[in-house]
Type IX secretion system membrane protein PorP/SprF
Amino acid sequence: MFFYVISAQETVASLDFRQHNLSAYNTVLFSPVFSFVGNENPKFAAWGRMQWTELDNSPSTYFTNYSSRIGEYTGIAVGAAHHDAGIFTNISFMGNYARAFQLGENSWLTLGVNVLGTKRTIDRNNFTDDELAMLSTEGRNDFFVSLFPGFNFTFGNFNLGFASENFLDYNFSTSSTETDFSDKIYIGHTSFDINFTSSAGTFLEEGTLRPTFYVKHIPDFETQVGGHLLLDINSGWMQAGYNSFYGPSVGLGAKLFKSIGIGVLAELGNANSDIDLGPTFEFTFAWEFIGKDGGRRKSFAGPVKKKKPEPKPEPVVEEVVEVPEEVVTDTIPEDPYAKFFKPGEKNNRYLVVDRIDGVKKGFYLVVNVYATQKYFNLFMEKLRKDGFDPEYFYNPQNKYTYVYLERYDELEEVEAARANNYGGRYDGETWIMWVRKD
């Protein structure tokens, strides 16, 4: 859930990027804290907005940026924007810095700032010579710098923040401030993430549902109230929203090769105008640099704490039982159970024991074997966090503990489970252990 409050003054050219729909990527333009908050992976991203496409000289905005975390508590970003408001064209370069401070076990304060240097020129192609002569010469070719500070409180999956798009600014061409204090743009936001932690095996696996609300006030304009709902999943994202000035919007994006995101969004018109100005279209492109752990954003909330590396599991211990020679006959190769009995050959896939006290006979899909309690406990905890319900048994004959995912009555069932990686849920090494008797 997001909540924004924005207030601005009347300037020569109001530098309103109209970034209210940004949710999955490019969010650093929405608030400077988002180079850190929810930004687990470095990424290059771009965004474009073509507003009211049936209007001549309609406004447009293009933004590209690179953002990344540096260490555990810092985020940075650099970017550039091209904003055409019909009369004026603004070209901006942006630098960003954000820093998080831990307040409690699951609570954080993040401070951030965007520094924008902007070159503003008048778009002469939109005017005749007579029209151009009637316009004020103020702001026709200016360079100014503005500070866009903000903060965000994180409480678990809940966020609450505030920012000002032009809190401090200075026009180097006129040697004066660009805006008066009463003309600043203010932004406040709030959000809540709903993570689908129990949806393994479905399209919602590792997904997040994020409702967002905002209020945006610009001086001399009507205050905007709106919100959007974002569903972010491994294969893409879907978004629907409403803005009291710009009207309803819908968006859809796809993630390719886990790291490339491509999306489009459409606003369906001006909510407060009887004049049909045509729809507004936005596009998004992102290239996310996924780490070795394949980590994707599981929450838009606070910082990700570094975890101590887990001890490496002990090597898998295999147990092979010698079979009496009289069992080995010429007919064994045709017997499906013969794969358990290969004299003189160590079989890594099929293990067999005659019986284990207290263990029911059958076929077990084993995932690991441990001789010490410490590493056994760590592995069991990891499996449970990954959504499994693992079981185990202890073999007093060799003093090893066997961890398995499921027991089966038939060989065909356990072989099918291993072949399809336990329904696509487990991609680690597995093998089959046959306990022949109760």
Notes: The radius of gyration is 30 Å. The helical segments are 129-134, 373-385, 411-419, 421-424. The CA atoms of residues 26 and 45 lie 6 Å apart.
